[in-house]
Structure prediction request, 312 residues.
Amino acid sequence: MVCLARTRFLKYALSLALLAGCGASSPQNSTDIQPAVASKSIPAELAGVPAAKLFGQKSAGSAQSSRAFGSHSNGCLAGGQQLAESGPTWQAMRLSRNRHWGHPEVIDFVQKLSRKAAEQPGWNGIYVGDISPPRGGPHSGHRSHQIGLDVDFWMLPAKRLDLSRTERENLSSISLRRSSGAFTNKNYTRQHHEIMKAAAQDPRTTRIFVFPGAKVRMCKEETGDRSWLRKIRPWFGHHFHFHVRLKCPDGQAGCVEQTPPPPGDGCAEAEQWVRNILNPPPPDPNAPPPKPRKTITLRDMPGQCLSVLQSE
Prediction:
């Protein structure tokens, strides 16, 4: 029964997300995107190889100017910068994953938000999860995080900023959810609210993904300017971390901007997510079966990604 209920909710939430624009992309710079890499231009040894494997073999950023090509879920990162492992108010976690590379805008954003986090009682800074691999592209664990403009922040208050590499591999974040994400639990604090609020108020932020119960609670507790709540979007999971997505940097031809969230604070939509967690709607008997996820190759990616891959 639990599996059936979750299946029902997943189908409902997927349709809701599509309507709400949580995952859609709109290529506002479409004329600057090179078409998918032509088959004849792909070296024989790269043709047909999963792009995740090719980009996963790169341990450092490309020797190019910093540019984001494509969309958050289908693109690559040129000239990525690596976040320092530790700073005055942050520490990068899970260093073995080598996913703390990003566009300079996201590196600056991390440093700025970490200073805000350090102002919160009980926090000395923030723990930073995945940004992107060195050259972006498809990789395990995420559909997005491909162009260096997405970053995950742990919910665990960063009390220590002297963690060893071993500790960063073994320490775990904390979950803030209760009842499958319908509500927050005792780990949720006003400090989480203030940190996510600060992230949303940065003009570079386009979305912040967090579990539905947290969004609903923020809606209930915010008594001041509520405009920033529009950027807080409910999504599956996202209770051990919150996910910040930045917009395409100004003048960055070749970067595909995501459709903005719908007008309004989005609180009613978050409440609907909660209702459907608690009481999943019946399945749609006419819903088509889910399509198997396609293995992405260079042929499916923006044309610039071949040069990003081949760069020194």
